[in-house]
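Before a colleague's protein record goes any further, I have to sign it off. Would you go through it and say whether the fold makes sense for this chain? Take the sequence as given and treat only the tokens as open to question. The record follows directly below this note.
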Amino acid sequence: MAVKEFTDLMRIDRSRFVVTPERLGVYRPGEHIDNPRTINPEPANPKERDADFDDWLQPDDPVLQVDHDTSMKRYIQRSVDIMVAGLESAVNAGPQSTDGLRDMGAALHILEDFFAHSNFAELSLIKLGHTRVLPWTSKANCKHPLPLVTGTFGGSDIIASLAEPLGRILFSPKDKPFEAFRAGERYERDQIIQIILGEHPEPGLLAGYEAFLEARDQWASQPFSEQVERFYAFIGTPGRLLGNAFGIAMQSLAVWLGNSVDDLQTLLNEDPNTSGSTDPS
């Protein structure tokens, strides 16, 4: 999805924008100011899957507690340290460095997440007298009775984040001008499907799709393939209209699914406004 947003930059020097394991990294709560609290951790040792993962925190770990003087969760300071280190790295690398710009973007993302992932806005409204606003936390033993907290990030949050953009890619209406398949070309939809199947526990699914892509490449290399595809595109117009209607419906369903996750979390999980917890989902 990022490739689609930065095509102009990639035309300049594609090698500077190749995704590598080091650049991609792994999910770390501190890079998003997420609450690192874990329930039923799996696997037991995350470093068995990737050495770059953070260790699971025990429920009684001090970093999960509210700091009395700042009235904030202690793990938030860890994110501040990561942000400062990223900004320093960007300054040292200079504005011409793609890695430096990447560090700056990651650092500013943490600053953005302070407002997006915390109850900062709710606490500010309550401070201004809007007492009917829910703080998304219970009171704690700290300077200000209601602490500043952030939410955890789990599997359901992944669905909320990706449902809409994936729906727009996988079920986009085919309203573009005719374009014949090109041998070796991997379109945006192909890349997304490869990523999804690459994470599936059944490796045969990815192997099957790779075989399909190889067969498509062989077809596209034939001198008559474009004429045949153009003919079928013409006679398939009625079916394409029906397919577009299906795609629009599936896009709407994906948007609805993504928007419903937070409501389901509120319904099925504990309510931090009344449960005594300072760990909202």
